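User: Okay, second chain of the day. Same drill as before: sequence in, structure tokens out.
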Amino acid sequence: MYDELLLTVLLTSVPLILAATGELVVERSGVLNLGVEGMMLMGAVAGFGVTSLSGSPYIGMLGGATAGALTAALFGFFVLGLATNQVATGLALTIFGTGLSGLIGAPLVGQAIDGLPVFIVPLLSDIPVLGVLFRLDLLAYLSIGLVAGTSFVLFRTRAGLVIRAVGDNATSAHALGYSVLKVRFYTVMFGGMMAGLSGAYLPLVLTPHWAEGMTAGRGWIALALVVFASWQPWRVVGGAVLFGGVTIMQLAGQARGWSVSPQFLSMLPYLATIIVLVAMSRGGRAERGAPAQLGRIFLPPR
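Assistant: Same drill. Structure tokens below.
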């Protein structure tokens, strides 16, 4: 029983880890992309559609990542190329992704696909309770590797130093000869790829079918996770597991017939998101670690 519960929490956490890690890199470069939900939906419909056509969930993963990256490129064109407002453009991207994914996915409703297979690590998977950590799919394992890689690049490499410099002081980075807009565009593309993978994970692992709006607000939780993690990659994992646990708790409560309104249980993950953000803001930790240029438009001098 506990094994199954832990496994469900871990699987529910994977999309949050992927999306939040990608958005963390984007925000580290000084760009605020509120279109994570829209990019996830595009990744979900592309992942399902490509898997349905090709018969391979691995190709579906690539399809989801590509769709997310292309959607992010649209955001980057407006925000970086045309210097539009980042908040308004991000919200527009979510609306655009929601509508377009619903249109593309309409013919896919009612179909089913074979999702990602589970990779079982011999011996380690037999450990009581913790053995579930070694009975996961490829993308779940990959999500931890991507967090580790992101942390290493951001804090141990020259490229990471440039990204953080652009996010903290774009003018100085430009004066040193770095192309601020190019660095930010690359991070926006990376964030889109991660959001696309996150969305593709839903039909490839959690629910092997397509449903309009199937992300159910996970993109907004991923945005909150970045703040919760104080822009530190490894903290994203802990936060994602926490929010995944809250999500599963409300589902378990409904299944067990708790004498609580099902609407109240359904809003628990989002209520927890608000409480965490308010608590961190009151404690002064939300600003500590936030990139100084976050959300600010940079226009290179001519």
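The radius of gyration is 19 Å.

User: Thanks, on to the next one.
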